[in-house]
Q: What sequence folds into this?
């Protein structure tokens, strides 16, 4: 026999409401939010309105979010023509548990050039690719998986989980790269050619190999 | 892995709903945070943190809360927890009850628990017992039985480990049953 738990639900609801009974209604409160607050929240609402992001705690998804650095491209960086490279910068909000990052600069809306890893760790081969607003390329060795995600920077926001891992700032061919590590994964993030890149690898792949993969992306 | 993940969101309804919630509750949240922090700027930071966290991590939970009372309770609880954290106070507001004493209380099945709470006493007595529970346990039970969150989701809401959350749920149920037994005794005495 199952018991209808509505008594418990209603009683809990009533007890918790009592806790906040002294908080006036929205109309009764004369509270002026500062310009800084309005600006910050407007940004969040705008992001949500555009809905180019949705963040969930899903273990099955290997695309972890991380942070990003200012990118000023040099002609030697990677193998892209040094004509007029898009320059993308970020600014960030530091919050409890995570940092949120937003982009500024020559933001891209679509992917017009696709990038791949050209030097993979031994045994890995490309096994899949998913197109959408972003491009995700998957490499596997029969046991583990490496993902390279390339995304346009317009309408994009990123967060850095600053509670459950460590972040190290690196420079690879002059490009600032942030490397997030936790007990399961290494995740490198950077911008290049106006795009956001995220490389997700098993933790067991060493940092030098991660750097070599990033340097090989063409 | 507890890393944040990102995908794209397309539903127009979600976009509107987020803005509606923001506009409908932000002042109440700011008022609550101000009353705790005594600083309007810190209070605004708390409100911003709560909304940013919802946008990024909690949207699927918040979106599914249909009852306006539950939505208000959820947002004010989130504000309270964030403000307490900002104060670096003991945000888990340890209950006065001894944990050892609670652990010594008899175990009960879910069916026994619901039967004892829902079928044996008058509603007012149940509310009174719940109101006298420590806030830690009341919060855990509220998230579990009213908002119907899973233990991992509750752990995240409360910013604590899954193991601690599971213990709180077990202890909260035991303690509530004990309080209800006391209510029943008072009732019989009367």
A:
């Amino acid at each position: 026999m199952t018991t209808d738990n509505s008594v418990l639900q209603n009683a809990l609801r009533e007890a918790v409401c009592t806790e906040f009974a002294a908080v006036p209604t929205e109309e009764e409160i004369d509270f002026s939010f500062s310009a800084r607050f309005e600006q910050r929240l407007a940004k969040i609402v705008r992001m949500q309105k555009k809905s180019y992001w949705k963040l969930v705690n899903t273990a099955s998804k290997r695309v972890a979010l991380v942070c990003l650095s200012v990118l000023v491209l040099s002609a030697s960086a990677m193998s892209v023509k040094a004509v007029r490279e898009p320059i993308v910068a970020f600014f960030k909000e530091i919050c409890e548990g995570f940092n949120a990052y937003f982009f500024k600069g020559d933001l891209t809306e679509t992917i017009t050039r696709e990038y791949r890893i050209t030097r993979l760790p031994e045994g890995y081969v490309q096994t899949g690719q998913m197109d959408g607003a972003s491009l995700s390329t998957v490499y596997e060795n029969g046991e583990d998986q490496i993902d390279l995600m390339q995304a346009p920077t317009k309408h994009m926001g990123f967060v850095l989980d600053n509670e459950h891992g460590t972040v190290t700032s690196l420079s690879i061919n002059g490009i600032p790269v942030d490397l997030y590590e936790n007990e399961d994964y290494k995740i490198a993030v950077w911008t290049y050619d106006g795009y956001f890149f995220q490389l997700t690898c098993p933790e067991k792949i060493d940092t030098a190999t991660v750097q070599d993969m990033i340097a090989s992306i063409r | 892995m507890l890393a944040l993940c990102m995908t794209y969101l397309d539903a127009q309804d979600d976009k509107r709903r987020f803005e509606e919630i923001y506009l409908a509750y932000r002042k109440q949240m700011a008022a609550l945070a101000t009353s705790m922090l005594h600083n309007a700027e810190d209070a605004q930071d708390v409100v911003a943190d709560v909304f940013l966290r919802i946008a990024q991590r909690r949207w699927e939970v918040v979106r599914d809360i249909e009852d306006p009372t539950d939505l208000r309770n959820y947002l004010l609880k989130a504000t309270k927890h964030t403000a307490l954290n900002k104060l670096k106070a003991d945000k888990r507001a340890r209950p006065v009850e001894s944990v050892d004493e609670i652990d010594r209380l008899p175990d009960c099945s879910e069916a026994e628990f619901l039967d004892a709470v829902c079928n044996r006493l008058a509603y007012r007595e149940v509310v009174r017992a719940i109101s006298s529970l420590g806030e830690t346990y009341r919060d855990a039970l509220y998230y579990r039985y009213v908002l119907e969150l899973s233990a991992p989701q509750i752990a995240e809401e409360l910013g604590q480990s899954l193991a601690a959350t599971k213990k709180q749920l077990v202890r909260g149920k035991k303690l509530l049953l004990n309080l209800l037994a006391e209510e029943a005794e008072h009732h019989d005495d009367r």
Summary: The two ends of chain A are 63 Å apart (CA to CA). Chain A touches chain B through 72 residues (CB under 8 Å). DSSP finds three helices and eleven strands in chain A.
